[in-house]
Design brief:
Helix content: over 70%
Structural class: mainly alpha
Distance between the termini: 8 Å
Order of helices and strands: EHHE
Radius of gyration: 16 Å
Mean pLDDT: 90
Shape: rod-shaped
Number of helices: 2
Number of domains: 1
Strand content: 5-15%
Strand order of the largest sheet: 1-2
Low-confidence stretches: none
Largest sheet: 2 strands, antiparallel
Oligomer: single chain
């Protein structure tokens, strides 16, 4: 039997939602920028980092610790 840490799973879901919000909000600001391609690239990198950490948290915590 394995014990799952649901707080970390919820934190991972929260980080994925934050990544989506970051990408959408910064992409909306790209139209006002002098270099919109760079803004979208930066938004994608920031959202990718947040989303990747969220996915890693979810996967590692759904595996869980082995209970002896």
């Amino acid at each position: 039997m394995r014990k799952r840490n649901w707080r970390f799973v919820l934190a991972g879901v929260f980080l994925i939602v934050v990544a989506i919000v970051i990408f959408i909000s910064l992409s909306a600001l790209a139209t006002q920028s002098n270099d919109p391609a760079m803004v979208v690239q930066t938004a994608g990198q920031a959202a990718g980092v947040a989303g990747g950490i969220g996915v890693a948290l979810i996967i590692s915590c759904l595996i869980g610790k082995k209970i002896s």
